[in-house]
Amino acid sequence: MSPEEFRHYGKQVVDWIADYLAGIEQYPVRSRARPGEVRAMLPAHPPERGEPYEQVLADMDRVILPGITHWQHPNFFAYFPANASGPGILGDLLSSGLGVQGMVWATSPACTELETVAVDWLAELLGLPDHFRTDSAGGGVIQDSASSAALVAVLAALRRAEGTTKRIYVSSQTHSALEKAARIAGIGSQNVRTVDVHPETLEMDPARLRTLIDEDVAAGLTPALVCATIGTTSTTAIDPVRAIGEICRERGIWLHVDAAYAGVAAVCPELRWINDGVAEYVDSYATNPHKWLLTNFDCGVLWVRDRAPMINALSILPEFLRNAATESGQVIDYRDWQVPLGRRFRALKLWSVIRWYGAEGLREHIRTGIALAQRFASLVAAEPDFEVRGHHPFGLVCFRPLRTDVLELMERVNASGALYLSHTKVGDEVWLRMAIGAPTTTEAHVDAAWAALRAAAQSR
Amino acid sequence: MSPEEFRHYGKQVVDWIADYLAGIEQYPVRSRARPGEVRAMLPAHPPERGEPYEQVLADMDRVILPGITHWQHPNFFAYFPANASGPGILGDLLSSGLGVQGMVWATSPACTELETVAVDWLAELLGLPDHFRTDSAGGGVIQDSASSAALVAVLAALRRAEGTTKRIYVSSQTHSALEKAARIAGIGSQNVRTVDVHPETLEMDPARLRTLIDEDVAAGLTPALVCATIGTTSTTAIDPVRAIGEICRERGIWLHVDAAYAGVAAVCPELRWINDGVAEYVDSYATNPHKWLLTNFDCGVLWVRDRAPMINALSILPEFLRNAATESGQVIDYRDWQVPLGRRFRALKLWSVIRWYGAEGLREHIRTGIALAQRFASLVAAEPDFEVRGHHPFGLVCFRPLRTDVLELMERVNASGALYLSHTKVGDEVWLRMAIGAPTTTEAHVDAAWAALRAAAQSR
């Protein structure tokens, strides 16, 4: 495809996306496709001859859109948001257009240096400590996800710890990515200890953590890492980082904070309390601009206080990557900060988002989501047939109907296509999760979602 | 950013990319930026207020382009190609515009099903065996890179093998990603055994492999995986997959094939010989359409003969991802086929590329690259001051000057900006690597590159 053909089709694709975003409310939020339905509409064999790109776009409408669950729909309230935004899309497009490989500094200096600037900017926007900035022993890096960030943290912690059998500590509310990381890293699920949580707040119990660590040390095992979560996936519970951190410091244990969803809320100074203890005690911290901060997936940021154990765990320098800049020690080679070797120029989208919205715009986006969540919680609280469960300092409100089967109610509203929400289990209870945070969601959407839920509960 | 603003700026970005691609030859191939230079041109702090997107585009020209090493330049001959193409960029753009999360089938059925179709199509295009197709016990999946594909293969193999100390086997020419995978997976570099290669062809020596395996088994260790490479990074050497496979079959060892660069050449029937033994003996096979097959990074494909050990190694199902489709067993949840949980809709770019070029166009692209490499090799062979080293069945030609210091010559031509090539070490010799394969590279570019190399050697 020549540059002129690209210019021609590129504008068609931009129009297609603009039309899609402008008209997104016409689609059922959750796809109604049945297993195999999309596949059955596609040819079993690849084409022998090339086709005009118009045919791809026609199939986007005919085949792909009916199989899409619309994560950018203003009535998408399931999981957490995976915010896309105009500048996020454009930053990704610039990255695809340049087509560079940023595996080491020398293979495209701007790819590495813009990433350093963007993650340093983000650390400043979130009020994270100076020792997470690149002009320190630590620094930040863009990962594809908080799962990969957790794996990198686990590998660094295992590298730093000395002992034959190493263990990591999570709570019953910690994301499954930590157990997956332990399995990938070869210590296995049997070396992941699960700390009890407070039955109401669902926060990790530091006293219980201390007991488990003491037991393990007495048994000759090596505690390597504790994962504290700021904003759990299930209910946005916040572990007591300071109290956990004191234990980790005493014992020399790596403290990782998984703030995948909620961490970006700290762009608002009034929410910086969520990071209490991070500056003093935390070795690594992950949050995902690709969830609630308007930056297209994939863009998760991991900061470390000391980059040495991570690089020791992940660095191998083959001959074909030797170069003067690496040998000078003056540059960062981000390939040593992640699992794969190759890297896209992901910093362009984070940089685009921060510049387009500015600190002001990012704060406004977060505050809007929180205000809508408060509004929704008030609506639920005022209705005797429902109750709000847990706290809701961010965009997620957990609640449940009192006179209707929860999952049956959820399936009914999700099947309607009018909105899409998800569920979680806490103890013996099933809760609905209403995760608000799309940039297009307004009070009218939240009110309509509530009306639909209420009507569904009444019409059982 | 509203859909209309996106429409407006999107077209500006498309124009920017089209202009960049049309004018790419005006730039020095390798960036001349010194460490810190790009960063110094950017503000130390993020903007408080948002900025118009024009300012980002202005900084693309002013700050970013001088820091770019132009991987899409027709005179980029370093590493292997990382082909971008118009349809690849457009497929990525559609993915960004939809902004869906394909972690499980239920979160966007089309994202999973199009991926299944695209990797099945690619298996057919490459003549890979039916048991790599999705309607079998095996199947294919898009990974970010061959490094991650190798890690997944190692994890599956470690899961399948029974024993306390497990080992993997590579050659001295195997990509460092395998050693990195062993370190990540917790078996460590000490359990990676390096098999000698034939001194001329640089192929793994199967007799030596057998000896190492026998030694290890006698010592009570468990051989878990052998990695054979089809087209090594250093010189595109091809390990004898059939002979290695016979040993693996006898001993029940997982055989992974890393065909990251060269595997896609099998779109041409006359090159299918490279996969001799794959149908009979191979458990997993990785190749990267993002190298030589016109699909923007990241798009690496991994096929497995039996998906069960991989899924057993990687699957954890938290409550919030439970859904009827998963429980029915009728769908694929690709999150269990990879390290991270989240996934972009990467199939769109592979699908776009296959449809735009067709099988015919893809074959023509590969054949053009090979013909240019043959041409370059002939030019080198005709010059008494240079010699061609190793074979060159693909787009890579290794060679060396006989009367000039190799690295000094390389640095001189790379610093000129006219072309960019890389080096490798084989035994005591340093070889230059001329990797041809950009869709814009023509005979004129290859001839000019040779003229520049020859002139530099003469002007020493």
Automatic annotation (TrEMBL), chains A, B:
<keyword id="KW-0456">Lyase</keyword>
<dbReference type="InterPro" id="IPR021115">
    <property type="entry name" value="Pyridoxal-P_BS"/>
</dbReference>
<dbReference type="InterPro" id="IPR015421">
    <property type="entry name" value="PyrdxlP-dep_Trfase_major"/>
</dbReference>
<protein>
    <submittedName>
        <fullName>Aminotransferase class V-fold PLP-dependent enzyme</fullName>
    </submittedName>
</protein>
<dbReference type="InterPro" id="IPR010977">
    <property type="entry name" value="Aromatic_deC"/>
</dbReference>
<keyword id="KW-0663">Pyridoxal phosphate</keyword>
<dbReference type="GO" id="GO:0006520">
    <property type="term" value="P:amino acid metabolic process"/>
</dbReference>
<dbReference type="Pfam" id="PF00282">
    <property type="entry name" value="Pyridoxal_deC"/>
</dbReference>
<keyword id="KW-0210">Decarboxylase</keyword>
<dbReference type="GO" id="GO:0019752">
    <property type="term" value="P:carboxylic acid metabolic process"/>
</dbReference>
<dbReference type="GO" id="GO:0017000">
    <property type="term" value="P:antibiotic biosynthetic process"/>
</dbReference>
<keyword id="KW-0808">Transferase</keyword>
<keyword id="KW-0045">Antibiotic biosynthesis</keyword>
<dbReference type="GO" id="GO:0030170">
    <property type="term" value="F:pyridoxal phosphate binding"/>
</dbReference>
<dbReference type="InterPro" id="IPR015422">
    <property type="entry name" value="PyrdxlP-dep_Trfase_small"/>
</dbReference>
<dbReference type="InterPro" id="IPR015424">
    <property type="entry name" value="PyrdxlP-dep_Trfase"/>
</dbReference>
<dbReference type="GO" id="GO:0005737">
    <property type="term" value="C:cytoplasm"/>
</dbReference>
<dbReference type="GO" id="GO:0004058">
    <property type="term" value="F:aromatic-L-amino-acid decarboxylase activity"/>
</dbReference>
<feature type="modified residue" description="N6-(pyridoxal phosphate)lysine">
    <location>
        <position position="291"/>
    </location>
</feature>
<dbReference type="InterPro" id="IPR002129">
    <property type="entry name" value="PyrdxlP-dep_de-COase"/>
</dbReference>
<keyword id="KW-0032">Aminotransferase</keyword>
<dbReference type="GO" id="GO:0008483">
    <property type="term" value="F:transaminase activity"/>
</dbReference>
<comment type="similarity">
    <text>Belongs to the group II decarboxylase family.</text>
</comment>
